[in-house]
Amino acid sequence: MSMKRTKKATATTRGSSSETSFGFNPPDQVVPTWDVAVGALGADGFIAYAPAQTYKRDTLLDHAKFGRGKVLAVDGGRIEVLFNDGVKKLAHGVS
User: What pLDDT, in 10s, does the model give residues 74-90?
Assistant: First the structure.
């Protein structure tokens, strides 16, 4: 007879808006605040976010739920984007 064991919980906090993981491809410099990196920019230059598209670092995105943001890091099929309410991980290049 085999017993299933549950995985031991780790002491990490996920989903915190103040948390920045940058577990992959970290930016070269200190992460700027949203006001400096995105908020001061005009509406020109932002492209609508779509998971099927691929993005590069420093691309300006307009997300339907999170608003305007800037791509901080890219790793394969994931990007980390700085939004007004924190850094979010999003998919990209999904077909």
Answer: 998 999 998 988 889 99
Output the domain CATH number for residue 80.
Answer: 2.30.30
Q: Residue 80 domain-assigned? A: yes
Residue 2: Cβ within 10 Å count: 4
Query: Has residue 9 been placed in a domain?
Result: no
H-only helix segments in the chain: 34
pTM of the model: 0.65
81 contacts 72 by C-beta, under 8 angstroms: yes
Q: Could you tell me which residues are beta bridge partners of residue 86?
A: 83
86: containing domain: 44-91
CB 92 within 8 Å of CB 54? yes
Q: Which of 55, 82, 87, 86 is nearest to 69 (CA)?
A: 82
Q: How many domains does the chain have?
A: 1
